[in-house]
Amino acid sequence: MMRGKFVIAGVGHTAFGTLPGRSTVSLNVEACRRALEDAGIEKRAVDGVFVKTPTSAREILYGQTLSEALGLQPRIGIALDQGGAANMSGIAFACLAIEAGMCEVALVCYADNPRSGSRATYARPRGDDAAFGWFSTAAGYAMIHRRHVAEHGTPEAAFGAVAVAARRHGAANPNAQLRKPLTLDGYVAAAPLVAPLRRDDCALISDGAAALVVMSARRARELGVKAAVPILGMGQAHTSWEVTQRPCLTSTRAKDAARDAFAMAGLGPADIQVAQIYDCFTITVLMTLEDYGFCPPGQAEGFVREGRIEHGGDLPLNTAGGLLSETGMPGLQLVIEAVRQVRGTATLQVPGVRHALVSNQGGTMHTHATLILGG
Amino acid sequence: MTLPTPEVTPLNEAYWAGLAAGELRFQHCPHCGHRWLPARRECPACLREGAAWEKAAGTGQVISWVVYHTAYHDAFRDRLPYNVAIVELDEGPRLITNILAPHESIAAGMRVRLEVQSDFGVNLPRFAPVGAA
Ligand SMILES: [Zn+2]
């Protein structure tokens, strides 16, 4: 039984936005230092390092390069490559390693610097298809967005509602990179980038890092950790097919990741009070809500309208601003916000949070991971 | 910055040779019957080797499409706005392409027919609406 056996003992992050002159290793070290301070434990307790490879500048042996900078010789040190889902699958692999007795205290972290460094990865030609003009990460999501509209008649306002909520929440977050609120009219008025995507459908490009300390609940008690947040459920599942080849564009194996996480936690969608849904693009949020069972397929429109996903609504989403407003950094900041919501220390705190859900995904919805935290 | 053109390899040369001759080819597996694009050495269904190339009828349908209003490469700056689409051939394989029609007229499920066009020095498989002249 994995439910509640492991905890997030501490969380830390750098500033978000433009951080020139900082390597991803340096950013990771700062976030790890802050996470260890938050957990109230010494570095020497750490014997596992699970780091997501930086998206914009891949390096070999990154797990060891970072461990060296952390002054650690971990029992398990590894870099994970699943795009955005690697953050939360890193948590899962850390728990599995602890369960197996292969390490005791793990740092799970991620850093990137595409804003000050190179953004080329987001604009690259896709395979042999450059001659058709098939470029960029955004265009893959635009294909999925368009197909969702074609199959379900999803209105602009549904996508807009996701962007408006994120921007309202980000405006309240002093750490957010983009704090300018957005109206639905403003959303619709923006010029298309790769239609049907508009500017405000797209995640920010950000420098920054975030880190977590993961250990067993027992070890947290032994070490005197003050605000450990139990992990209730975890799941992951991967669609893997490139967008072009994917038989269905409007549903992914997010469905299976969520099913496993809910089963481990013994919970369902109705038991969740606040959710952090990976919002690299607004379509991702709508499809995740559908695949997770928060609403039937094709009906996310009704779920997100009229402020229902805003603070004060039925299910507040991305309460620190998400990738659309807080930072475009892939995913760990969503886990940190869920930790704050369970601890009761969020800026836009949702009252009475017992269970907080987080989704992470990567590639063009190639990979997916689900996490449920709570008391 | 020159546009990356398709890299012709022993694996995919039959595909590009087909387009040079004005036809679109896909791979099929003699063991399990699976059909696919782009070129692979092993069948993604049964994992065996020995795929054969087959000429596509050239008809299919639009699965999804996007319209670029920003150029990620200089070669496309003068072509904005342009579309990129996913087309599913009637035989099953899917590919990235351009639809030779006004953007507003493109729809999911729209029937299209192959039109091989020379562009950037290579023959590309593009598609026009069925019934268009
Ligand atoms: Zn086969």
Automatic annotation (TrEMBL), chain A:
<dbReference type="Pfam" id="PF22691">
    <property type="entry name" value="Thiolase_C_1"/>
</dbReference>
<protein>
    <submittedName>
        <fullName>Thiolase family protein</fullName>
    </submittedName>
</protein>
<dbReference type="InterPro" id="IPR002155">
    <property type="entry name" value="Thiolase"/>
</dbReference>
<dbReference type="InterPro" id="IPR055140">
    <property type="entry name" value="Thiolase_C_2"/>
</dbReference>
<feature type="domain" description="Thiolase C-terminal">
    <location>
        <begin position="235"/>
        <end position="374"/>
    </location>
</feature>
<dbReference type="InterPro" id="IPR016039">
    <property type="entry name" value="Thiolase-like"/>
</dbReference>
TrEMBL record, chain B:
<feature type="domain" description="ChsH2 rubredoxin-like zinc ribbon">
    <location>
        <begin position="16"/>
        <end position="48"/>
    </location>
</feature>
<dbReference type="Pfam" id="PF12172">
    <property type="entry name" value="zf-ChsH2"/>
</dbReference>
<dbReference type="InterPro" id="IPR022002">
    <property type="entry name" value="ChsH2_Znr"/>
</dbReference>
<dbReference type="InterPro" id="IPR052513">
    <property type="entry name" value="Thioester_dehydratase-like"/>
</dbReference>
<protein>
    <submittedName>
        <fullName>OB-fold domain-containing protein</fullName>
    </submittedName>
</protein>
<dbReference type="Pfam" id="PF01796">
    <property type="entry name" value="OB_ChsH2_C"/>
</dbReference>
<dbReference type="InterPro" id="IPR002878">
    <property type="entry name" value="ChsH2_C"/>
</dbReference>
<feature type="domain" description="ChsH2 C-terminal OB-fold">
    <location>
        <begin position="53"/>
        <end position="116"/>
    </location>
</feature>
<dbReference type="InterPro" id="IPR012340">
    <property type="entry name" value="NA-bd_OB-fold"/>
</dbReference>
